[in-house]
Write a structure and sequence with these properties.
Blueprint (H helix, E strand, L loop, with lengths): L11 H14 L24 E2 L9 E5 L3 H14 L3 E3 L10 E5 L2 E10 L2 E13 L11 E6 L4 E6 L3 H14 L3 E2 L20 E7 L14 E7 L5 E7 L10 E5 L2 E4 L2 E7 L6 E8 L3 H14 L3 E5 L8 E6 L3 E10 L2 E10 L1 H43 L22 E6 L4 E6 L3 H12 L5 E3 L8 E8 L2 E10 L2 E7 L21 H9 L18 E7 L9 E8 L3 H14 L3 E9 L3 E7 L4 E9 L2 E9 L1 H6 L9 E7 L5 E5 L2 E5 L13 E4 L2 E9 L2 E10 L4 E6 L5 E5 L2
Parallel strand pairs: 33-39
Antiparallel strand pairs: 1-2, 2-6, 3-4, 4-5, 5-6, 7-8, 8-12, 9-10, 10-11, 11-12, 13-14, 15-16, 16-20, 17-18, 18-19, 19-20, 21-22, 22-26, 23-24, 24-25, 25-26, 27-28, 28-32, 29-30, 30-31, 31-32, 33-36, 34-35, 34-37, 37-38, 39-40
Length: about 725
């Protein structure tokens, strides 16, 4: 199948021909409009429509209606039908909410959403569709199924076969279709044109490439018409069988099963490690070619065919298949111009028991290995500690002269921190735990401090409790690698009128130093993916994307900066401008303690929020990538939010939200199955409930806004983790 997507480049020969024709005609003819592309701004709108003027120059019309979608949709269908637009459905999209129309060689799509926060109102969108393989619809045709890319048409003509044949003979020729003859069909292998159709007739056509009429490399088609008992005629136009691929190649896998290269759509559930798995596909090939593909590919993967299985509705072929561990059924049938494939398998009881045993053995081995490793680490740590302890001095200590602390400090005290207001003291020393405890017992006892007995008195750690006159001091002496840390607190260390000069502070806690840092010009960290000052005290950067997708849908930076809000705002306006971001005036909010600004960037929209907390400026910067979200099929519909469901647990789960229950299979939405269930919802606050077999129900709430995409991931323990994806 070969189609040209909207926006694809026309082959060079067509560009040269178009330029030549333009040069010849420019002196006498006006420029010609694109007859294959409808101007949606000329289409009728429902009475009471409120148009969006911001979209006037775009390739789409959007207008609001004061009625819900259930009322608006049939009214739009009736309105456009009265204007000559013929409604149809696309193959395999019978349940779609989108309305499709055709008028001549022009196509139109219409879809609907609920107005933001107004379930009693709806929004209508008109979008043009280009038809690359136009075929005529009989007047008054019923049950029209159409795809203008192949093309495919299925319908019921209201006229008898002879009249319908006359209609197509006339109308197909009028739009450039030419009947195939044995001579013109000789370029295709096995192109038989004389096959008989019971109670009907079949005619083969081809169409030359034409830029004017919009045809590009269409394969020949066959028009089949059969009589009906009610005097009407069944009509089908589809790609001729001899123009379809005779041999299919492997395109990839779905649920671990082979998928042919002519696949239009496919879906997989489970994988080779799950107890059950299944795949389905619609393949644009004849059934014998698809059957030959699965004969070959399944055999290459060790599958055996065990005879026929009972046919189900829609089946033409049903074959039992098996391996040493799995059994299943391969089913093939026809629908429209597709061969429909269904392959479902499950593990045998023996294989399930073997896997349970293998997992148990693996878990036991993991625990044994972990225990052995822990013992090695403990032993190595004990050896290292002993070596480090041996390097610590047991020599008696002398008191440090001129110390301004309530209790003496040993002469080798380092990195001293003392806070007399809170009564806290901490320092490190190169002496042993034994030497430091002996120093304080010898120093405090003569000063009237009485020690309370403690059960913690080891070579690497000791705890001492002292009291005197209603005051207390608690000391912990602990070996920390090559040094010993002493930390003490209590009312006996408080100094109400402590001299700031006597307080030993680390430079990082000095208010003067902190103020100097805060007043210094903010500098950007060159290693950060999103701009953030080097002077921050904390930062985090998160990205949201699905397995197998390189570009993130959403990036979020959070930071805390010890600087004035105005300085941080100036920093971000400067740095974001350097990146080519443009600030949007709409919705901007700037006050003394809060800022919210919207930006546009090359990747997509962004929002900057600044606030004040704990004497610092908090930063929240979010950037979205709509192109990446659209390619991954997680982009919310206009005015809606989207939920993605995943399950990292080992058993199926049920999530109920907005009176809808979503079944999430084990492993769905994980690395092996990136496509889990999805749900579109209006913005708002929703309560959701999780149910899993053998576990109590879990309930929580989720607040979602229009344009957001959230993931609800069920963890192995049965908890639900909400994660904003877009």
């Amino acid at each position: 199948m070969s189609t040209i997507k909207r926006g694809a480049q026309v082959p060079a020969r067509w560009r040269l021909l178009a330029c030549g024709l333009l040069l010849m005609a420019s002196a006498s003819l006006p420029a010609r409009a694109d007859d294959g592309y409808v101007d949606v701004h000329t289409l009728p709108q429902l009475e009471g429509a409120v148009d969006d003027p911001s979209l006037k120059n775009r390739d789409r019309v959007e207008y609001r209606m004061p009625t819900p979608e259930t009322v608006t949709a049939p009214a739009v269908k009736k309105l456009l039908s009265a204007d000559g637009w013929v409604p149809y459905v696309r193959p395999l999209e019978e349940k779609s909410d989108t309305l499709n129309f055709k008028k001549g060689r022009q196509g139109l799509s219409v879809h609907f959403t609920q107005a933001l926060g107004r379930p009693d109102q709806s929004v209508v969108y008109y979008t043009p569709d280009r038809i690359y393989g136009n075929v005529p619809f009989p007047d008054g045709a019923l049950g029209i199924v159409f795809d203008g890319t192949r093309p495919y048409l299925g319908c019921i003509a209201p006229t008898v076969l002879e009249a319908t044949l006359d209609f197509y003979t006339r109308e197909m020729a009028a739009i450039g279709w030419q009947k195939l003859t044995p001579e013109t069909a000789s370029r295709w292998t096995n192109a038989g044109l004389d096959d008989a159709v019971p109670n009907g007739v079949r005619v083969y056509y081809e169409h030359p490439d034409s830029e004017v009429t919009g045809f590009y490399r269409q394969k020949p088609v066959m028009l089949t018409m059969t009589r009906r008992d009610d005097g009407k005629t069944n009509v089908e136009i589809r790609t001729a069988v001899f123009a379809l691929p005779a041999e299919l190649k492997l395109d990839g896998d779905s649920a671990g099963f082979p998928r042919p290269d002519a696949t239009k759509t496919s879906m997989g559930k489970g994988n080779a490690t799950t107890a059950k798995r299944e795949m389905s596909a619609a393949v644009m090939a004849n059934l014998p070619a698809v059957l030959a593909f699965y004969h070959r590919e399944l055999a290459a993967r060790g599958w055996h065919e065990d005879g026929n299985a009972p046919l189900a509705a829609g089946d033409e072929v049903a074959i039992k298949v098996s391996t040493a561990e799995e059994t299943g059924v391969l089913r093939l049938g026809r629908k429209y111009d597709f061969t429909m494939v269904s392959l479902a398998t499950q593990l045998t009881d023996t294989a399930i028991a073997a896997r349970i045993k293998a997992k148990k053995d693996a878990d036991e081995k993991f625990m044994k290995d972990a225990e052995a490793m822990a013992k090695q680490v403990i032993a190595a740590d004990e050896t290292r500690r002993k070596v480090q302890a041996a390097a610590l001095s047991d020599a008696p200590l002398q008191a440090l002269a001129d110390s301004k602390t309530p209790v003496p400090l040993p002469e080798n005290a380092q990195e001293v921190t003392f806070n007399g207001d809170d009564g806290r003291l901490e320092f490190n020393a190169a002496s042993s735990v034994k030497a430091l405890t002996a120093f304080y017992r010898a120093s405090l006892k003569p000063a009237g401090w009485k020690e309370q007995p403690s059960v913690i008195n080891q070579p690497n750690m000791a705890v001492m409790e002292f009291s005197k006159g209603g005051k207390s001091i608690s000391m912990t002496v602990m070996q920390m690698g090559p040094k010993v840390n002493v930390s003490a607190d209590g009312s006996g260390l408080k100094m109400a009128a402590a001299n700031p000069a006597s307080k030993a502070r680390p430079a990082g806690n000095d208010p003067a130093v902190a103020q100097a840092k805060a007043s210094a010009p903010l500098e950007a960290d060159p290693d950060s993916a999103l701009p953030v000052p080097k002077q921050r005290t904390s930062t985090s950067l998160g990205t949201a994307k699905l397995p197998g997708v390189e570009a993130p849908f959403r990036r979020e930076l959070e930071a805390s900066v010890p600087a004035a809000l105005s300085d941080v705002l100036a920093f971000y306006r400067s740095e974001l401008t350097k990146l080519g971001w443009q600030e949007k005036p709409d919705g901007a909010a700037v006050s003394a303690d809060r800022v919210q600004l919207a930006f546009t960037s090359a990747q997509g929209p962004a929002v900057l929020k600044l606030g004040r907390a704990n004497g610092e400026t908090s930063v929240n910067l979010v950037q979205k990538n709509p192109d990446a979200a659209t390619k991954a099929d997680i982009m919310p519909k206009p005015g809606q939010a989207k939920l993605l469901f995943g399950n990292m647990g080992s058993q199926d789960a049920q999530l109920t939200i907005n009176k809808q229950t979503i079944k999430v299979a084990a492993g769905a939405g994980g690395p092996q199955s990136p496509k889990g269930p999805m749900l579109d919802l209006p913005p708002g606050k929703y309560q959701y409930s999780l149910k899993m077999a053998g576990r109590p129900a879990r309930n929580d709430t989720l607040d979602i806004a229009a344009g957001d995409a959230w993931g609800l991931m069920v963890g192995p323990t049965g908890d639900v983790l909400p994660l904003q994806m877009y």
